[in-house]
Amino acid sequence: MKTLITALIFLLTSMLPADKTKSTSRWVVSGNSMLTVNGRTNINRFSCAIVRYPKSDTILISKDKTDHIMLSGTLNLEVKDFDCSNTMMTKQLLNTLQQSKFPTLKIKFLSLKEIPSVGQRNFVKGDVEITLSGILKRFEICYEVNVKQGLMELTGQQAINFSDFNLIPPKKVGRLIQAKNQLVVVFFLKMEKVG
């Protein structure tokens, strides 16, 4: 009887779903990380940046038995921290992004096509969700990733349109200077491995 109960317990536990995660690594985002938006007006180019990331968010990279790679974690950036090196342009951008109503820009990491190799520069595609002015959009981004000795640098860029987020490009000095619809969002993350 004891043998039958032991065999039954073994059979039932072997039928339970196994933990599919093979490996998970945790990376803390450094304050030296930054986000830049580059655009054009009918006259010239402009660039607005958040030059320091004051939080210590954690990004997770995990791989399951199906070799699906998850890149998870969210960057919550304060829209008020954008600086366009021009007071009028900064004010126009913050108004356009409805900073008082939607104070946070979110970048949520979803997946990677492959795990970057240590000690060399890698070019890897991955999916992200960007939430801006209350509108969420999903994009596939090509990252440049450099991993060495517990440090990772991740650089990515994505062209977006103001209209993707139901926004009207900013205007300056009446209607004489008008920003174009397209922006290029560039982010540079420095991360340190923990655990």
Give an account of the 3D structure.
The model is unreliable at about 1-20 (pLDDT under 50). An 8-stranded antiparallel barrel has the order 1-4-5-6-7-8-9-11. It has helices at about 1-15, 85-95, and strands at about 20-30, 35-40, 45-50, 60-65, 70-80, 105-110, 120-130, 135-150, 150-160, 170, 175-195. The longest helix is centred in the N-terminal third of the chain and has 14 residues, at about 1-15. With about 200 residues, it is mainly beta. It has a single domain, classed as Lipid/polyisoprenoid-binding, YceI-like (Lipocalin), CATH 2.40.128. β7 and β8 (about 135-150) form a beta hairpin. It comes from Pedobacter roseus. Pfam families: YceI. InterPro entries: Lipid/polyisoprenoid-bd_YceI, TTHA0802/YceI-like_sf. This is YceI family protein. Keywords: Signal.
How does the SSE layout of this entry go?
Layout: H1 2-15, E1 21-29, E2 34-41, E3 45-50, E4 58-64, E5 69-78, H2 87-96, E6 104-112, E7 121-132, E8 135-148, E9 151-161, E10 171-172, E11 177-194
Antiparallel strand pairs: 1-4, 1-11, 2-3, 2-11, 4-5, 5-6, 6-7, 7-8, 8-9, 9-11, 10-11
Number of H- or I-type helical stretches: 2
Q: Hey, roughly how much beta strand do the residues contain?
A: over 45%
What is the distance, rounded to the nearest whole angstrom, between the alpha carbons of the first and last residues?
46 Å
Derived from helix and strand composition plus strand pairing, the structural class reads mainly beta
Second rung of CATH, namely the architecture: Beta Barrel
Q: Let me know the average pLDDT.
A: 82
Helix-strand pattern: HEEEEEHEEEEEE
CATH fold assignment: Lipocalin
What is the domain tally? 1
CATH class category: Mainly Beta
| Number of strand segments | 11
**Order of strands, widest sheet:** 1-4-5-6-7-8-9-11
- Which stretches are poorly predicted, pLDDT < 50 over at least 5 residues? 1-21
Helix content: 10-25%
